[in-house]
Design a protein that fits this description.
The structure is a single chain. With 508 residues, this protein is α+β, with helices and mostly antiparallel strands. The chain is built from 22 helices and ten strands. It has helices at residues 8-18, 24-37, 51-62, 67-74, 78-81, 86-108, 115-129, 133-148, 155-175, 179-193, 195-207, 213-230, 244-253, 274-287, 329-337, 339-342, 347-364, 366-377, 383-393, 420-427, 429-433, 479-500; strands at residues 236-241, 265-271, 296-297, 310-317, 320-328, 401-405, 411-415, 435-440, 443-445, 457-461. A hairpin with a 2-residue loop joins strand 8 and strand 9. It starts with 7 loop residues before the first helix and ends in an 8-residue tail after the last helix. The structure holds manganese (II) ion. Manganese (II) ion (MN) binds at residues 52, 76-77, 142.
Length: 508
């Protein structure tokens, strides 16, 4: 925790460092708007609430995203937690920023309700969000600050938030190529999820024979001197420490043997061109002796995730080794900021690539997903309902589905053009059969009118209603709803009787 509270100036400084031509007036307006909206509210930590959106915005600035996303980060809790409406945000900041804020509000409505539904909800949440990857990125920035202030909330809740970050958010950041935020989310969560392993990894890192970050400063100076002498141009030379959770994962892979890990700390040389990277490698090898078999050319042969860099490890002195990484500025930005780096070229492209990556991920994780399903199988006593839920988990429904919410925040996925009747039957057959009216986003909504993704749907039922209206067949969209309505229509008076006097009609 910082000793002093962050200010607007900290944000402006962070933004200007990355983009000197940033639209500061937009950020000032968004800050003033959020500040006055949150006036008087406090965080659990006792700090003024505005500190949270401010840190979210600073995190976003460090992720190299555009100004409109940083502004949306400042405003992200306004519509949810204050009397200000989304329409007011739209009037003040336009449709694009308002739509991002709206997306974040909806994600926030999802609540933890038992492990099985929780995984399913999150999967759906990310599918729903895939329509605008910017919402996910803002959510990362928001989540990172929440992780940094976990000490102030009850332990059980803190654990759940940390676990969710480690298992859901970080892998998604990874898939979006956002190495920097992935590492930050993981490290912030690691300590809460696995305190013992965290302490163990931290201790091992301290005992490693590699140079520690403060010692790396000297290597950096020497590296710059060497390069200056040869006239090879460089952009920056800086040190980097391996993220602790990433170290932990690597340790598990190498039988917990710290001596097998060479990249605990590294010197990163950002060079103007790929040719400069190879030239600099030669210079470093003539100064310090390379370890055998440690040269890795991911420039000519990128990793499957697209990662590009030239790596080598050298003996710094008899007792210390150090890894060097050479890369161009573009390779560096791609590795650290992933999808957000695409924005510099084309914002539309960023959104599109985001959708593709998330879709890919859902496809690839299908196997894992099925394993999870197998695990919950034991808990499901009724094999038929298990088969039905398997059916629902089929992952081919990406394009032509909408995602709507119950008032409690559960996500319900439905085919496009589904109506409140389809929603009601999806909740429960009884809810469908006794449905009399629907409210969507707090307003009365005709039962025959289609729902949209993001709608919050509330069904009014009347228990005295004994059967569905056959007219509903004219607009019910899902097979499930239609078959239930038809069942009653077919049964006619006999069905009614059966309902009133159970057992009065014999089954065929
Ligand atoms: Mn927030």
């Amino acid at each position: 925790m910082p000793e002093r509270l962050a200010t607007l100036d900290d944000l402006i400084k962070a933004v200007k460092e990355i983009r000197p031509d940033a639209d500061i007036s937009l950020l000032e307006r968004a800050f003033a708007f959020a500040d006055s909206a949150h006036k008087g509210q406090l965080r659990m930590s006792g700090e003024p609430y505005i500190i949270h959106p401010l840190h979210t915005a600073i995190n976003l600035a460090e992720m190299h995203v555009p100004d409109n996303m940083i502004a949306a980060g400042l405003l992200h809790d306004v519509a949810e937690d204050t009397p200000i409406t989304l329409d007011q945000i739209q009037d003040e900041f336009g449709e694009d920023i308002a739509s991002m804020v709206n997306g974040i509000c909806k994600v926030g409505k999802i609540k933890y309700r038992g492990v099985e539904r929780y995984i399913e909800n999150l999967r759906k949440m990310f599918m729903a969000m895939a329509s605008d990857v910017r919402v996910i990125i803002i959510k990362f920035a928001d989540r990172l600050h929440n992780l940094e202030t976990l000490d102030c909330i009850p332990q059980k809740k803190a654990y759940r938030i940390a676990l969710e970050s480690l298992e859901i958010y970080a892998p998604i950041a990874n898939r979006l190529g956002m190495g920097d935020i992935k590492g930050k989310l993981e490290d912030a969560a690691f300590r809460y999820v696995m305190p013992k392993e965290h302490a163990w990894a931290k201790e091992l890192a301290g005992e490693s024979m590699q140079l520690k970050l403060p010692q790396i400063e000297k290597v950096i100076e020497q590296t710059k001197e060497e390069l200056d002498q040869t006239d090879i141009p460089y952009v920056t030379v800086h040190g980097r420490q391996k993220h602790l959770y990433s170290l932990y994962r690597k340790l598990l892979k190498y039988n917990r043997d710290i001596t097998k890990i060479y990249d605990l700390t590294a010197v990163r040389c950002v060079m103007p061109t790929p040719a400069d990277c190879y030239a600099a490698l030669g210079v470093i090898h003539s100064r310090w002796t390379p370890l055998k078999g440690r040269i890795k050319d991911y420039i000519s042969q990128p990793k499957p995730n697209g990662y590009q860099s030239l790596h080598t490890t050298v003996f710094y002195d008899r007792s210390a080794i150090v890894e060097f990484q050479f890369r161009t500025k573009q390779m560096h930005e791609a590795a650290e900021f992933g999808i957000a780096a695409h924005w510099a070229y084309d914002e539309h492209k960023m959104i599109q690539i985001g959708q593709e990556r998330i879709k890919e991920m859902i496809d690839e994780d299908q196997l894992d997903w099925m394993n999870q399903v197998a695990n919950v199988q034991a808990e499901i006593s009724n094999p038929k309902s298990f088969l039905e839920s398997l059916e629902e988990m089929k992952l081919d429904a990406f394009n032509d589905h909408i995602f709507v919410y119950t008032p409690k925040g559960d996500v319900i996925d439905l085919p496009e053009d589904s109506t409140p009747i389809d929603f009601a039957y999806k909740i429960h057959t009884d809810v469908g059969n006794t449905c009399v009216a629907a409210k969507v986003n707090d307003a009365i909504h005709p039962l025959d009118q289609p729902l949209k993704s993001g709608d919050i749907v509330e069904i009014r039922t009347d228990k005295s209603r004994k059967s569905p209206n056959p007219d509903w067949l004219k607009f019910a969209k899902t097979r499930h709803a239609r078959s239930k309505i038809r069942q009653y229509a077919r049964m006619g008076i006999a069905g009614w009787l059966k309902d009133i006097i159970p057992g009065s009609i014999k089954k065929k």
